[in-house]
Here is the input.
Amino acid sequence: MKTTVNLNDRLLERAKRAAAREGKTLTAFLEEALSARLAPKPSAAERFELVLPTMRGTRRPAVDVADRSALLDFLDANE
Here is the structure.
């Protein structure tokens, strides 16, 4: 469908340049922009909270994880 729309000159120039950069026609660019603007907004999702289980060990760790060199040595030895 053809229609006439009055656009701000600067806005139209920006749209033309953006369409050209993306290798699209101005019509395709404007259709995509309007579709995105008119798309339904997703409802506010509940905040997700990740809860990781923690367990108490019965022995001390085999390596100090803060010591990078010792950690890498431990990982290499246990491959």
Summary: The CA atoms of residues 39 and 45 lie 17 Å apart. The helical segments are 9-21, 26-38, 68-77. The first helix runs from residue 9 to 21. The two ends are 66 Å apart (CA to CA).
